[in-house]
């Protein structure tokens, strides 16, 4: 017998295994890159978080704050709708990135009512919420709006918690549908450039110092800046009373208060400001002020520097911290001096000086990230004179504060149009009709108490009249000469009419009974739980009203 040899190449049983493995690896790499791109896209959106929900009761000073459950609900709803909502990423392991949010959303419930009839299983609830957005970049509230929402909810105890969340989510839905809301949270801080007329200032001829031994001269040239509730720092650049500070401290004001190291307080006039670079030039009526010169060069990395300011407000004013220049960074197209010197919000506008007493940067802002120490940044002194259109000279000229290029400041907050009151009978009727079409429960008693009284009274009268008429007709029938068959047939008809009369009278009496029950104006309370809201049901001249507190 001839033996047949297998001449097929090896591994022909599994020819697709290497191909499948390579395909799986390629798809895994592609999916990882796609996830990375999606993450980058999400990170590119303005991060927003929800701060808190407050209930303010009318006529009372008590203010309730919703518990964490409502905060989680709102953040998850914003995230579901595609916003870059940060916070409560992992409740189980207490992971929360709320501190990375640029925008903070908060709300105050100033209207909450659920008109309700005794024994009803549903109530039509109206809620009005004043929403506000706080922008950490602007350090102020930038958007306000009042939204109203109406929903028929179940009053069954097991459903009340879910229904309360639906009320809040309905208000959120009204909020996110507003174009101005979306424009506000997605906007980028773009400030039009302003151009000032060139001016000169008397240069600071402070001799070269040797720090830290001569730090007293630096402190005497520093000031504390107070603009409303904001407190920051600054320093004189001229003996004629010209000083520099951070623009974001000024809150758009034309004058601010300053405090010298000797405790004297006076008013300073805002001359020029460049919000794009967070710089402001102010003027104080003093003579021969201690001042600090601006360094004409960028500092070298590793240079020893000192930051002067009020790191925790006025109580710790004229504090000094030391460090080095950690780097020269470019952020959003602007150069910044990075330092590891301890810097806090009250340092904003204060000087960062080198060992010779020259100002190398003006403190602008601070970055704080989880797992990092504070990273301090300052505006380089080399750009100050250019952007404020000033140059050192032997004397100070008149410095006009009028700029071309338009106002560089947006007026905040943006107040959006309030939702209208859904209070008219026509609107209520339309809302009831809509709820019927959508399958939501509606009120059975919708025609009013007067209508039910008249209907009940008419039914009782009509029923009694029918009963009496059948008895009278029966007596007449017995006195007639009709045949027995005709009498039997008429008797059956009278019996039917008599039964109908009794039924109508009983139903009418029932309506009158309901009228008498709902007509009693007795105070009755029926507490129920709506999540963390305690709802109180009571009777008022306008009907039963549901009030609440957290």
The helix content is: 25-40%
What is the 3D shape? rod-shaped
Radius of gyration: 39 Å
**First and last CA, distance:** 96 Å
Q: Main sheet: which strands, in order across? A: 2-1-3-4-5-22
* Count of distinct strands: 25
Class based on secondary structure composition and strand pairing:
alpha+beta
The major β-sheet equals: 6 strands, mixed
Number of helices: 9
What average pLDDT do the residues reach? 76
Q: Which stretches are poorly predicted, pLDDT < 50 over at least 5 residues?
A: 1-43, 431-448, 520-550
* Strand content range: 25-35%
Question: Describe it for me?
Answer:
The chain has 9 helices and 25 strands. The protein is α+β, with helices and mostly antiparallel strands and 550 residues long. A 6-stranded mixed beta sheet has the order 2-1-3-4-5-22. A hairpin with a 7-residue loop joins strand 18 and strand 19 (375-380). Helix 2 (68-80) packs across helix 3 (157-176) and helix 8 packs antiparallel against helix 9 (484-518). The radius of gyration is 39 Å and the shape is rod-shaped. The N and C termini lie far apart (96 Å). The relative contact order is 0.11.
Topology (SSEs and partners):
Elements: H1 17-44, E1 48-56, E2 63-65, H2 68-80, E3 103-113, E4 122-135, E5 140-154, H3 157-176, H4 179-186, E6 195-196, E7 199-202, H5 215-220, E8 222-227, E9 230-236, E10 242-245, E11 255-259, E12 265-274, E13 279-283, E14 304-309, E15 319-331, E16 334-339, E17 351-353, E18 359-367, E19 375-380, H6 384-388, E20 390-393, E21 403-404, E22 414-415, H7 425-437, H8 449-478, H9 484-518, E23 528-530, E24 533-540, E25 543-549
Parallel strand pairs: 1-3, 5-22, 7-20
Antiparallel strand pairs: 1-2, 3-4, 4-5, 6-21, 8-9, 8-11, 9-10, 10-13, 11-12, 12-13, 14-15, 14-17, 15-16, 16-19, 17-18, 18-19, 23-24, 24-25
Helix pairs in contact: 2-3, 8-9
């Amino acid at each position: 017998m001839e033996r047949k040899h297998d001449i097929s190449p090896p591994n022909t049983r599994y020819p697709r295994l290497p191909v499948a493995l390579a395909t799986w690896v390629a798809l895994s790499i592609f999916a990882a890159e796609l996830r990375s791109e999606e993450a980058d896209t999400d990170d590119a959106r303005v991060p927003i978080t929800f701060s808190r929900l407050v209930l303010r009761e009318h006529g009372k000073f008590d203010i309730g704050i919703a518990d964490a459950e409502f905060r989680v609900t709102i953040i998850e709803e914003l995230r579901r709708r595609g916003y870059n909502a940060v916070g409560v990423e992992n409740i189980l392991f207490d992971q929360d990135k709320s501190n990375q949010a640029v925008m903070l959303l908060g709300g105050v419930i100033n209207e909450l009512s659920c008109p309700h009839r005794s024994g009803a299983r549903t109530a039509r609830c109206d809620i009005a919420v004043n929403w506000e957005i706080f922008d950490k970049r602007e350090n102020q509230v930038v958007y306000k709006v009042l939204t109203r929402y109406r929903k028929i909810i179940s009053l069954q105890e097991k459903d009340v918690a879910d229904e309360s969340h639906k009320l809040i989510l309905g208000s959120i839905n009204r909020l996110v549908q507003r174009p101005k809301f979306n424009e506000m949270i997605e906007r980028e801080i773009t400030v039009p450039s302003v151009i000032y007329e060139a001016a000169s200032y008397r240069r600071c001829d402070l001799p070269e110092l040797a720090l830290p031994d001569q730090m007293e001269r630096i402190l005497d040239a520093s000031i504390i800046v107070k603009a409303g509730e904001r407190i920051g720092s600054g320093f004189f650049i001229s003996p004629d009373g010209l000083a520099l500070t951070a623009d974001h401290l000024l809150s758009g004001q034309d004058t601010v208060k300053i405090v010298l190291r000797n405790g004297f307080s006076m008013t300073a006039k805002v001359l020029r400001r460049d919000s794009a670079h967070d710089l402001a030039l102010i003027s104080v009526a003093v003579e021969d002020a201690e001042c600090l010169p601006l360094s004409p060069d960028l500092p070298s990395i590793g240079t020893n520097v000192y930051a002067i300011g009020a790191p925790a407000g006025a109580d710790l004013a004229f504090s000094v911290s030391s460090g080095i220049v950690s780097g020269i960074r470019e952020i959003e197209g602007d150069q910044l001096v990075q330092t590891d010197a301890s810097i806090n919000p009250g340092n904003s506008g204060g000087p960062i000086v080198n060992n010779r007493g020259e100002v190398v940067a003006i403190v602008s802002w601070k970055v704080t990230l989880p797992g990092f120490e504070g990273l301090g940044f300052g505006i380089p002194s080399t750009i100050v004179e250019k952007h404020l259109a000033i140059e050192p000279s032997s004397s100070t000229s008149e410095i006009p504060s009028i700029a071309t290029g338009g106002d560089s400041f947006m007026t905040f907050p943006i107040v959006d149009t309030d939702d209208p009151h859904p209070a008219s009978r026509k609107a209520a009727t339309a809302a009831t009709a809509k709820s019927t079409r959508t399958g939501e429960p509606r009120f059975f008693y919708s025609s009013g108490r007067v209508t039910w009284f008249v209907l009940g009274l008419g039914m009782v009268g009509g029923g009694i009249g029918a009963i009496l008429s059948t008895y009278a007709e029966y007596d007449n029938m017995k006195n007639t000469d009709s045949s027995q068959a005709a009498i039997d047939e008429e008797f059956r008809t009278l019996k039917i009419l008599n039964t109908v009369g009794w039924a109508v009278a009983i139903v009418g009496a029932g309506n009158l009974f309901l009228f008498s029950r709902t007509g009693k104006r007795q105070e009755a309370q029926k507490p129920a739980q709506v999540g963390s809201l305690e709802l109180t049901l009571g009777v008022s001249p306008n009907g039963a009203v549901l009030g609440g507190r957290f």
